[in-house]
TrEMBL record:
Residues 11-191 form the AAA domain. This is Chromosome partitioning protein ParA. Pfam families: AAA_31. InterPro entries: AAA_dom, DNA_Partitioning_ATPase, P-loop_NTPase. Involved in chromosome partition. Localize to both poles of the predivisional cell following completion of DNA replication.
Length: 273
């Protein structure tokens, strides 16, 4: 491989919410695709033993020869797990069910919370194959050791929140975990933002929930709201991001807007130091 410019570290964003079914995996896949479509080099790290991000990107089990389990248990370097997807500039480190045993395997090790951070350190090596600008970590629906690894490795956290009555329930627990990780493991960790998902504008309650979350969390909530869109939910069964499945649908448009907003926020964060 030909060496290019000196390697710089990617921005690492953990997509986390201990609730299941709020749109974490959908956001990892489609935000990753949207970022790649506008020129970023993206690695999605699947840290959910369910492997939905891997399946949704069309990566079958037999293609997952080296997985995030192998990486976090120290049996393989991250670069060995990285595989291309059908989307240019979008790569994946897939997961397998083994990952559900991580806690038993490494739960007593001193460095147990830093396995992902160590694995991502120097992921970019100055070659064209490893020059990621963004790493998106798809977390499991839990605040367990896997999620703590993601938070310890991340620059920031992106929280998908479903537009439903109990949206804010559980948020304080999530924020408490973020604070603990900041205190003990990763002092520079920040909340990148909250993205409201599965929004149905015809539903008065959904409108009220978005208003309430904006009032409560202020500017941390992205302008972009992801609509409930059947194309978004169909796409994974074809192993495709929605932007590949149907570029023109409202779901694809929303994820492109979110990607733009995230890059703008990154620039503002960088400018602010
Ligand atoms: P999580 O990873 O938080 O468990 P998922 O991203 O898997 O949540 O989403 C849960 C379910 O909701 C999936 O079946 C997904 O296809 C569907 N879904 C997610 N976002 C949308 C959306 N904006 N519109 C319609 N369906 C969605
Ligand atoms: Mg998921």
């Amino acid at each position: 491989p030909v060496a290019t410019a000196p390697a710089s570290a990617p921005r690492v964003i953990a997509i986390a919410n201990q609730k299941g079914g709020v749109g974490k995996t959908t956001t990892a896949i489609n935000l990753g695709t949207a970022l790649a479509a506008i020129g970023e080099h993206v690695l999605i790290v699947d840290l959910d033993p369910q492997g939905n991000a891997s399946t949704g990107l069309g990566i079958e089990r037999k293609q997952r020869r080296t997985s995030t389990y192998d990486v976090l248990t120290g049996h393989a370097p991250m670069r060995d797990a990285v595989i291309p997807t059908a989307v240019p500039q979008l790569h994946l480190a897939p997961s397998t069910m083994d990952l559900s045993g991580l806690e038993l395997e490494i739960g007593r090790e001193r460095d147990r919370a830093f396995r992902l951070r160590t694995a991502l350190h120097n992921i970019n090596n100055g070659t064209p194959a490893f020059n990621f600008t963004y790493v998106l970590v798809d977390c499991p629906p839990s605040l367990n050791l896997i999620t703590v690894n993601a938070m310890a490795a991340a620059n920031s956290i992106l929280v998908p929140m479903q537009c439903e009555f109990f949206a804010l329930e559980g948020l304080s627990q999530l924020l408490k975990t973020v604070d603990e990780v900041k205190k003990n493991l990763n002092p520079n960790l920040s909340i990148h933002g909250i993205v409201m998902t599965m929004f149905d504008s015809r539903n008065n309650l959904a409108n009220q929930v978005v208003a309430d979350v904006r009032q409560f969390m202020g500017k941390q909530v992205y302008e972009t709201v992801i609509p409930r869109n059947v194309r978004i939910s169909e796409a994974p069964s074809y192993g495709k991001p929605v932007l590949v499945y149907d570029l023109k649908c409202v779901g694809s448009e929303a994820y492109l807007r979110l990607a733009t907003e995230i890059i703008q926020r990154e620039r503002a964060m960088k400018a602010a130091g």
